[in-house]
Write a structure and sequence with these properties.
By secondary structure, this protein is an alpha/beta fold. It has helices at residues 2-9, 21-31, 47-55, 74-79, 92-103; strands at 36-39, 62-66, 84-87. The longest helix has 12 residues, at 92-103.
Length: 107
């Protein structure tokens, strides 16, 4: 998945990569990126905890990716203002389009 992200977004955006949820949160606090793309299932801290912690300090757009049925998590994602849910497998085109929408200025 990380290679897919780098291939799809790396030419157009500066990426900050974390291999687990704990590192993702620490990098978020340090670097303050303009967008988060997080998997629901990550080692050391899952995506749900990451989203909750980030929402405690920021309204940065969050895109969630998941390989499983996330229907039962829909209310959680709505409550924490997740921008979009990408269910795997998804195309490079859909990823790029979703990122562009998340970063588009709101009028």
């Amino acid at each position: 998945v990380l290679d897919f992200m780098q291939q799809t977004l790396g030419g157009e955006y500066e990426l900050i990569i974390a291999n687990n949820g704990k590192d993702a949160y620490n990098l978020f606090v340090k670097e303050r990126p303009i967008l988060i793309i997080a998997d629901v299932y990550m080692p050391q801290k899952d995506g749900l905890d990451l989203i909750k912690e980030v929402r405690g300090i920021s309204e940065v757009p969050i895109i969630v990716e998941s390989g499983g049925n996330v229907g039962n998590l829909q209310k959680y994602f709505e409550f924490h203002r997740v921008f979009h849910i990408l269910e795997k497998p998804f195309t490079q085109e859909l990823l790029l389009e979703t990122v562009k929408k998340a970063l588009a200025p709101t009028v």
